[in-house]
Amino acid sequence: MMRTLFSLIVFVCLTSFLRADEGMWLFENPPKQQVKEKYNFDLTDGFLDHLRLSSCRFARRGSASFVSSQGLIMTNHHVGARNLHELSTPENNLLENGFYAKTLADELPCKGLEVLVPVSAEDITEKVNAAVKPEMSAEEAQKARSGAIAAIEKEAADKTKLRYEVTTLYQGGAYHLYGYKIYNDIRLVFAPEETIAAFGGDPDNYEYPRYCVDCSLFRAYEDGKPAKIEHFLKWSTSGVKDNELVFVSGFPGKTDRAYTREHLEFQRDVYFPWRLQKLYRREVVYSAFANRSLENARRVGDDLGAVQNYRKRAIGQLQGLQTPSLWGEPKKIVEGSPEEIIKLACAEESNCYYAYDLLELGEAFNSKTFQIARTLVRLAYEIEKPNGERLKEYRDNNLESLKQTLFSDAPIYEDVEIIKLTDSLTMWREIPQTLLDISEVLDVDKNKSPKELATDWILNSKVRNVDERKRLAEGGIKAIEASQDPMIKLVLKVESAARFARENYEEAVEAPLTAAYAELAKKRFEKLGTSVYPDATFTLRLSYGAVKGYKDDDGTEIAPVTNIAGMFDRAEKQKHKEPFDPPKSWKDGKSKLNLNTSFNLVTTNDIIGGNSGSPMVNAKGEVVGLVFDGNIYSLSNNFVYTETQSRCVSVNTDVILESLRKIYKAERIVKELGF
Amino acid sequence: MMRTLFSLIVFVCLTSFLRADEGMWLFENPPKQQVKEKYNFDLTDGFLDHLRLSSCRFARRGSASFVSSQGLIMTNHHVGARNLHELSTPENNLLENGFYAKTLADELPCKGLEVLVPVSAEDITEKVNAAVKPEMSAEEAQKARSGAIAAIEKEAADKTKLRYEVTTLYQGGAYHLYGYKIYNDIRLVFAPEETIAAFGGDPDNYEYPRYCVDCSLFRAYEDGKPAKIEHFLKWSTSGVKDNELVFVSGFPGKTDRAYTREHLEFQRDVYFPWRLQKLYRREVVYSAFANRSLENARRVGDDLGAVQNYRKRAIGQLQGLQTPSLWGEPKKIVEGSPEEIIKLACAEESNCYYAYDLLELGEAFNSKTFQIARTLVRLAYEIEKPNGERLKEYRDNNLESLKQTLFSDAPIYEDVEIIKLTDSLTMWREIPQTLLDISEVLDVDKNKSPKELATDWILNSKVRNVDERKRLAEGGIKAIEASQDPMIKLVLKVESAARFARENYEEAVEAPLTAAYAELAKKRFEKLGTSVYPDATFTLRLSYGAVKGYKDDDGTEIAPVTNIAGMFDRAEKQKHKEPFDPPKSWKDGKSKLNLNTSFNLVTTNDIIGGNSGSPMVNAKGEVVGLVFDGNIYSLSNNFVYTETQSRCVSVNTDVILESLRKIYKAERIVKELGF
Fold first, then answer.
1. What pLDDT, in 10s, does the model give residues B184-230?
2. CB atoms within 10 A of CB A202
3. Residue B387 lies in a domain
4. Given a cut of 80, is residue A29 above it in pLDDT?
5. Read out DSSP for B408-468?
6. Do A139 and A78 lie in a common domain?
7. Is residue A590 in a domain?
8. Distance between CA A95 and CA A86 in Å, rounded?
């Protein structure tokens, strides 16, 4: 049975440790006591440092780890899929065919891809809060904090070559400065065919039992040579046992476990319905396009997969929120309390969220072309301002990676861009006039249909050309204002409304929420200190847990580990119908495989999106798994963790090794992994 | 280029005939003059009577025709698909495997299926209008008309065995009484595999070139024997030529060509966005369910196919409505004019449509179980009232077919019912509280989640059992009120809100719209007489046109006729990926087929949904095609017909015959067809 939402806070107040395997712990405040009490295991600093320095963040997409001294990086196939997509051609679809570089020289450079290793962490809470004066309004305080954070990031960056990012923890209860070593020459080493990486596809996503080799290998290079890595994870040769203790080190993206009742009501009544409305239509539009031809399917494949994944997750979360029995009894809200401020901010958010989402987040102009043009326009204007006054994403510490993305020559398909933009403009036109009037923003174009507008803007924009992007970026405001590019002109037209929506959202919603949660967090700190973990923030976290099956809704006992035989069996039962048809390489190589080899496994680790690609290690610190999913019950992890049915789903390293050896004949890599 | 919306009326005012092949003409007022002037062909009464009496309506789903003296009926595979679905078992999926009855005795009875032949038509406009007194309000007038119509239908039915239905034409400008001969012992004779009937599936739906054998054959029985049919259509042996004159006789469902600007704005801003929102989510939810297993796919296949079809159609229509260049200049609305009344009614409709749709049309309770329980409850109460005061669908003339549907033992799948109901309840909960508060209607269940409610109601309801339905229907109000069935109780809880929503909708929207359009129609009549056709009303219509290709948006010339070779070529290019993989029977039989055999064809006929299954005949009255679709440009036919690109898509009878002979070895049927 799932716990009541929000019981978390009450629960941790009453006990000195968490009974469940709950928590996405900071490496700065690891759960030594909890692990000792529940598993009788000593989390030593040496163990933690090694695990931390072997972990890395894969672009802004997920987690990864070093698995050799020669810079070999392991992550999920779905985390690296965008690169496979970008490296594909009409002649060789790497998602379809997989990839293996027989020699170092065959490894394929991934343009614009960065891998970040978290090498330092510092608590700078006092420094940030020192900028806030008692007489400041919430808005002024927010601005003061932002200024202080920008200054601290800049100061730190000036000292070393690391990239520094300040992360707000405990809803403003603490601020930590993280330093990352950046690798930006990353090359593709190995990827299996998508049909085995994502065996079962969207239908089996978030389900269990599973059979996915959701794994890709990349390599970090420095000065054109494989990077020398001190901290990397060795692979286990002993497999996993029931109830065995395991750790996950990765970058969980975002949880909202401190949310108050009223904030969750906003999520249930506004945020998720709106998000799902967009996801449903996109899934249908992308599918319809994909189904017209195989080349269409390849072009839109990544977008479609992402949408399906988000959709399934959002449905799961909304179902949790729409379950009244999880809500417990409402409490009286004291006037002037943080809870009341949150309630009022959510009421405000219900009004201003749509404009923010459509204009500032660009959901009305769903296309890469718009986002590129937007970045070019803003770069020109923001770069002229002092660092602390810029929009966050244009501050000095973000500029390098922003430019790397901006000047990436990853292919952009006109036809995909047109269907995406047509649909999002259509959606905008469908929104009741009371919400937003499209013609107020785009008056000159009101005589064209969404399809006509989208076709015109996409086909006539030149910003899909990297040289043109560079020319505009170098030309600054002058070049932007002189540009006749329809997409640049569109961005300029939308700009004031978009910035207004952002400012309004930040001032009326974000600032009071931050302040109120900071106050709530402060109260919690006074009671609990660092014995609790902060909500996920896409910074490195440690989760502990055990290999453990569970009981399904209908009472079926689900064993924790699947094997290769099970995969072939599922394929057989589904008559090898896509996405249940393993690749030819596996069918041909079946007789060579040990069918008892472990395939996927479930554990009680507390994870969430962003953890994809995280290494799972045993008590010896050896890799036993590669996290790639949560089961359907884990979808409420965003709001509340429950150990009964919620499970983390990983690829067993055994199946990766078995297939590297017998299916892909990747001897070079098997050797590098230490076998 | 498409014509401006609404130019229709202006256009026909200025000319004595329609230049374009426009019109869904009444057989009572056939376009003799137009056909003579444009094609120099005499539409004789004999030609028309024979075509009309050979035509039939297939349940409430589409059109069909008699093609032998022994009761053989031809319609689309997709029109008869529900019966194939119902006759399927887990062991033999008729959609997958197709069906051919080798002997008469093998023909499979389709429970609950009716075929209607339109044998008489009478103009009763004066009788209906005689019931309206000058002092009556719009609402009273509407009631008086309804009473008169019920009385006329009853009187006619008492005289003969035919079923009578009064149809409102010209938005109330005229009323015609149609008499139908009913066949209700219908048996399945032949259906190809769905993979060739719907080759290209949803991706190629509304596209061209096409390659579908979208055809099924049924047989009407009387007294346990094949019905003796006097009027049936012979098949042509001469194929079709470019620009050849052809006629379509069928039941176009609904067009809205008389809609005023404000009414179309309602369609664009409220109706279609809301409809698409529902369709998008259903398509995603049904697809996700279907993709989990082959049996799931079979169970939900019909629902999914319908949703995809509606979705594609709605997107096309909305795209037309969102094209400002099609709208022309707005006109000033005179105070008190029909246009103003329509404008006000549409404003009202924008408010009350959601409640009407969710509660009265049952969209919040999307499941067969709810619809059955609703019918049982209403039947009990309505049957006690005088005929004229009943809800339309419970009047004597509708009771027989209502009961046939109600007591059909077609399978209903619990799991499909649960996912449908879960999703629609979830959707309801997502609707802003200002619109409708679920707890007002369902107060006692407010502690359960949509999934818990749906599972409870579906699993514990017994109305999926036909005997239980009969028991409740026989028990009347007493049995209904004593029932502990959760779905009956749900219907009763919703009933007052639902009826209120319906009454409100009928009074505030339908009645003023009917009155205003009647006035507009009256003005048109005064100018145009019967030289124009009325909007489609799912009654028999005649359309004329010619075999003609067209130019695609990107300039490609599309030839009007495809052939068998083209189908195999498309399959090859799509690597035989579903839905581009023809059935084994075709692949095995390829060498026997004449690859030049005509497959599908496009013509300029003015058709719309409901025309599916219509016979297409040449000037000799011989069948040359079987209408099954319109191309993408025809989707705006609902509002405006444009001859430039809008095309009717048919199966060439040549490919049906070729496959009956060489693929399906259906000698018995080939002979019966006269070959």
1. 999 999 999 999 999 999 899 999 999 999 999 999 999 999 999 99
2. 21
3. yes
4. yes
5. ------HHHHHHHHHHHHHHHHHS-TTT--HHHHSGGGTTS-HHHHHHHHHHH--TTSHHH
6. no
7. yes
8. 10
Banded pLDDT at A441 (limits 50, 70, 90): low
DSSP E strands, A49-102: 55-58, 62-66, 72-75, 99-100
Q: Does A596 touch chain B (CB under 8 A)?
A: no
Q: Does A318 touch chain B (CB under 8 A)?
A: yes
Cβ of A322 within 8 Å of Cβ of B292? The answer is no
Higher pLDDT, B90 or A52: A52
Q: Which residues have CB under 8 Å from A206's CB, separation 6+?
A: A312, A313, A316, A629, A630, A631, A632, A634, A635
Contact with chain B for residue A328, Cβ under 8 A: no
Q: Please name the residue of chain A whose CA is at the shortest distance from the CA of residue B284.
A: A280
Q: Is residue B45 part of a domain?
A: yes
Distance linking the first and last C-alpha atoms of chain A: 43
List CB contacts (< 8 A) between B287 and chain A. 287
- What mean pLDDT, rounded, does chain B reach? 91
Q: A319 vs B426: CB contact, 8 Å cut-off?
A: yes
Domain's final residue, options B182, B209, B235: B182
Of residues B203, B288, B446, nearest to A292 (C-beta): B203
- B chain contacts of residue A325, beta-carbon cutoff 8 Å: 447-449
Domain that holds residue B172: 121-182
| CATH code, domain with A553 | 2.40.10.120
Whether A202 has its CB under 8 Å from any CB of chain B: the answer is yes
Whether this prediction's pTM lies above 0.90 is answered by: no
In this complex, the residue of A312, A324, A574 whose CB is nearest that of residue B447 is: A324
User: Nearest C-alpha of chain A: how many angstroms from B353?
Assistant: 14
- Whether residues A97 and A228 fall in one domain: yes
Is B199 in the same domain as B157?
Answer: no
How deeply is B66 buried, as exposed, middle or buried, from its count of CB atoms within 10 A (0-12, 13-18, 19+)? Answer: buried
Q: Are A155 and A188 part of one and the same domain?
A: no
Does B291 contact A203 at a Cβ distance shorter than 8 Å?
Answer: yes
Q: Do A246 and A624 meet the contact criterion of CB atoms below 8 Å apart? A: yes
**Residue A428 and residue A454 in one domain:** yes
Q: Is residue A325 part of a domain?
A: no
Tokens of A307: 């949408």
Domains contained in chain A, number: 3
Q: Which of B182, B211, B234 is the last residue of a domain?
A: B182
B574 at A interface, C-beta within 8 A: yes
Same domain, B73 and B152: no
H or E element in which residue A658 lies: helix A653-662
Are the Cβ atoms of A203 and B284 closer than 8 angstroms?
no
Of B202, B279, B294, the CB nearest to A577: B294
Partner-chain residue, chosen from A273, A430, A447, that has the shortest CB–CB distance to B324: A447
- Statement to judge: residues B593 and B474 lie in one domain: no
Partner B, chain A 257-276, Cβ-Cβ below 8 Å:
269, 272-273, 276
B440 Cα to chain A: minimum distance (Å): 16
**Pair (A595, A654) in one structural domain:** yes
